[in-house]
Design brief:
Helix 1 packs parallel to helix 2. This protein has 345 residues and is of the alpha/beta class. It has a domain of 224 residues: NAD(P)-binding Rossmann-like Domain (Rossmann fold, 3-Layer(aba) Sandwich). Strands 3-2-1-4-5-6-11 form a seven-stranded parallel sheet, with helices on both faces. The structure holds nicotinamide-adenine-dinucleotide and UDP-4-deoxy-4-formamido-beta-L-arabinopyranose (WQD). The site of UDP-4-deoxy-4-formamido-beta-L-arabinopyranose has 18 residues, from helix 7 and strand 8.
């Protein structure tokens, strides 16, 4: 069996960590990425960590001719599909771009896969598909939907497409990986999350406050019905998450159909607990101010992790301490992210 895995969006945050995990267990990796939210420097860093080359096609998943060429030039065993746009608030302003990239992009990719007979697929889904009404912890058997923004709806719609595809063609084997809140960075400090502009997500914001790029953290609301009044989320280390993709690939072999798996640690941590954990793990203080709630935030959600453990043999091993220390090591070593060393490739 071929050992080549196509990773769309492989230059991004979760993609780069997954490339390292794949290379560590002997897969050859092929990346398609248009670099709309990433830097080619990250791929050099991946090669430094693994000591192995990454085969890179710079281009768009909407470019069918490019995908045809990628499938023709390689013996691809499976596809891991990260490429897409991911900012919730931006998706409200740019729904067409989000549906275009996330839905049409996935359809073009799937059609190219079908045409070339590659039918193992791992999809980057999100806990957001459980919508705004689901009870916690989120379990895979819950009905999905009730999404509240185009980003979430795009993930939900692609999940439907994939379920229908697997139902219609029994050669397809598809894992829908529903990530909770990915944080942290590779322990080498060479790769990590590199948001452009003002970070939307909590940990990158905290890290930028700690490194002196931003003055203080705004804590979005402390009047939620939670123990300390701030929202609870299920933070999961990106290195664990990367490992989940390796497990999903193994799971696909010999299987057919589409199955969803939660990838989370299985517990809710509050915003204030994260601030304290960061300060404790790094010794750096994080000034913050409580402000009003951010529109669209849910009070609390975390994963039921039983299915991923049972079927994929996957659990999140790394704790809060590692999440904080690794975030800080990356941020401290790369205060401008990849930008300072970007050669413009
Ligand atoms: P990211 O933005 O760092 O990585 C996505 C990569 O895809 C980037 O390198 C970008 O340049 C590329 N890309 C985007 N559109 C493309 C296109 N049309 N053609 C080719 N390349 C394209 O994001 P990430 O955090 O690594 O997330 C990866 C996937 O996981 C995304 O699909 C995201 O929606 C999903 N996800 C992320 C989170 C999270 O919090 N980070 C949570 C749940 C799900
Ligand atoms: C976490 C908590 C905020 C920033 C988003 C997407 C979700 C998924 C992951 C892709 C919340 C609070 C945050 C800040 C704060 N992405 N916060 N001050 O909103 O749980 O999930 O990313 O699929 O779909 O919605 O993550 O990191 O933005 O927020 O107080 O400056 O931190 O209110 O409680 P979220 P987040």
């Amino acid at each position: 069996m071929s050992s080549q895995v196509l990773v769309t969006g492989g230059v991004g945050y979760i993609g780069t960590h997954t490339l390292v995990a794949l290379q560590e267990v002997g897969y050859d990796v092929i990346v398609v990425d248009n670099l709309c939210n990433s830097s080619a420097v990250a791929l050099q860093r991946v090669e430094t960590i693994s000591g192995k080359p990454v085969c890179f096609y710079r281009g768009d998943i909407l470019d069918r001719a490019l995908l045809n060429r990628v499938f023709a030039e390689n013996q691809i065993f499976a596809v891991i599909h990260f490429a897409g746009l991911k900012a919730v608030s931006e998706s409200l302003r740019k729904p067409i771009e989000y549906y275009q990239n996330n839905i049409i992009g996935s359809l073009v990719l799937l059609d190219a896969m079908r045409a070339s007979g590659v039918k193992r697929f791992v999809f980057s889904s999100s806990a957001t598909v459980y919508g705004s009404e689901a009870p916690v912890p989120y379990v895979e058997t819950l009905q999905t939907g009730n999404t509240t923004n185009p980003y979430g709806t795009s993930k939900w719609m692609v999940e439907q497409v994939l379920q229908d595809t697997a139902a219609a063609d029994s050669e397809f084997a598809i894992a829908l990986l529903r990530y909770f809140n990915p944080v942290g960075a590779h322990p080498s400090g060479l790769i990590g999350e590199d948001p452009q502009g003002i970070p939307n997500n909590l940990l990158p914001y905290i890290a930028q406050v700690a490194v002196g790029k931003r003055e203080e953290l705004s804590v979005f609301g402390d009047d939620y019905p939670t123990p300390d009044g701030t929202c609870l989320r299920d933070y999961v280390h990106v290195v664990d998450l990367a490992q989940g993709h390796v497990r999903a690939l193994e799971w696909l072999v010999g299987r057919t159909g589409a199955e969803a798996f939660n990838l989370g640690a299985g517990r809710g941590i509050s915003v204030l607990e994260i601030v304290r954990a960061f300060e404790h793990a790094t010794g750096v203080s994080v000034p913050f101010r409580v402000v009003s709630r951010r529109e669209g935030d849910l009070p609390a959600f975390w994963a039921d992790t039983f299915k991923a453990k049972q079927e994929l043999g996957w659990v999140a091993n790394l704790g809060l301490e590692e999440m904080m220390v690794d975030t800080w090591r990356w941020q401290n070593a790369n205060p401008q992210g990849y930008q300072a060393v970007d050669t413009g490739k």
